[in-house]
Each structure stands twice: as C-alpha cells, then as structure tokens.
C-alpha cells in the first residue's frame, strides 16, 4: 500500500506541506468542522498551505447528530450549512471531496438518536451538502458503528463509503447495505515526512478489488 492520501486535524500540529508533497502524498482530507459552530483551528492554514504545495484538498465534518438545534431536520441542516459555509465564504481552496464523519466521540459522547432518526439526520445532512455544493458527501465510519446505528434497509449504499479498518486484511469488512468502499483508512499510525507523530493513511479502492 502506498501513502498517497492522508487525513489530518489540528491534532497533527504544524505541518511542512512541501515535505509532505515531496514524500509522494497527492491528497489531504482536512477536518474542517465539528458539530455546529466549532471550526478546526488549523483547517484554513492546512488547506491553503497544502494547496500551495500542490496537494488536492478535501474537507470532512465531524457530526454531532442530535436535536440540540430543535428538530432532526433543523439540526442536520444547520450542521451542513455551517460545514459548507466555512470553505465557501472563507476563501479556502475548493474541495475535491467532502465527507461526514460518523463515530463515537473520544470523550464517550454518542448520538442519542435511534436508528430511524439517525438515518433521517444523515440523509438530510448529505442532501443539504449536495444542495449547497453540488458534491456528494462521503460517509466516513467503521463497520461496527454503522451496523449499530443504521437500519439494515437504510438505502445509503450509493453514497461513497470511506471506511476505517486498521486490521491487516486484504480488504475491509463492509457495513450492511454497501457492496464496496471508495476510500479505506487502513492505518492511524502512519509516518509521513513533514508531519510529526502519527498520521492517518488512506487508499482509493482499486477497480478490480
């Protein structure tokens, strides 16, 4: 596996993007926002410097699916609008891809929504992102999480899947409803010149895989 695609957040600290590019990385997916009103403090700097170094730039949103903004529809719509406004109005590089990160938070917080409600939230978020940008928003998660939080007949199988699986396998196990992945985050302890410490590594699915 080659380290052509990485994803980063402010946890990765100061990055020398010229060294990253010279190492052979072609794409970076940057955490742009968390929930509603919380922007990753390094996102704009990362995006501009990575783009200037010749990398393709993409963004992801760490979702907080709930009803804190009133209803499922209002909450999902506001998070989607906040996410897309940051690069559309903030003079940031145009993204190649967009993704929504669906997972339990490091502090233990998880969505209070049931499976039907959660599915509705995700669909509204993806639909609103597409309405705002014309880009289909990928889903980032792992197989156990999606199987535990989505109904088996969720109907999201046409949405590109960015799957996390760090096991030493030839292909990651997929959640119910998907027949293939688009991106595979296969390592969270990768090493790339220009980045101190570990970094996530990803690959695009081969057409024959």
From TrEMBL:
GO terms for molecular function: lysozyme activity. GO terms for biological process: carbohydrate catabolic process; cell wall macromolecule catabolic process; peptidoglycan catabolic process. InterPro entries: GH (IPR017853), Glyco_hydro_25 (IPR002053). CDD domains: GH25_muramidase. Gene3D superfamilies: Glycosidases. PROSITE patterns: GLYCOSYL_HYDROL_F25_2. Belongs to the glycosyl hydrolase 25 family. This is Lysozyme.
């Amino acid at each position: 596996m080659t380290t052509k695609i990485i994803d980063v957040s402010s946890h990765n600290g100061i990055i020398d993007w010229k060294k990253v590019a010279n190492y052979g990385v072609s794409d970076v997916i940057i955490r742009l926002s968390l929930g509603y009103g919380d922007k990753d403090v390094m996102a704009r700097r990362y995006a501009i410097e990575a783009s200037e170094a010749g990398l393709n730039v993409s963004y992801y949103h760490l979702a907080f699916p709930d009803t804190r903004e009133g209803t499922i529809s209002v909450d999902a719509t506001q998070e989607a609008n906040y996410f897309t406004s940051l690069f559309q109005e903030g003079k940031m590089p145009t993204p190649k891809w967009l993704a929504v990160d669906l997972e339990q938070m490091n502090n233990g917080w998880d969505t209070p929504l049931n499976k039907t409600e959660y599915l509705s939230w995700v669909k509204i978020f993806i639909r609103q992102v597409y309405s705002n940008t014309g880009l289909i928003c990928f889903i980032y998660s792992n197989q156990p999480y999606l199987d535990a939080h989505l109904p088996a007949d969720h109907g999201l199988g046409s949405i590109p899947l960015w799957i996390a699986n760090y096991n030493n396998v030839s292909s990651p196990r997929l959640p119910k409803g998907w027949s293939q992945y688009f991106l595979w985050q296969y390592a969270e302890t990768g090493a790339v010149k220009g980045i101190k410490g570990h970094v996530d590594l990803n690959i695009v699915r081969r057409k024959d895989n």
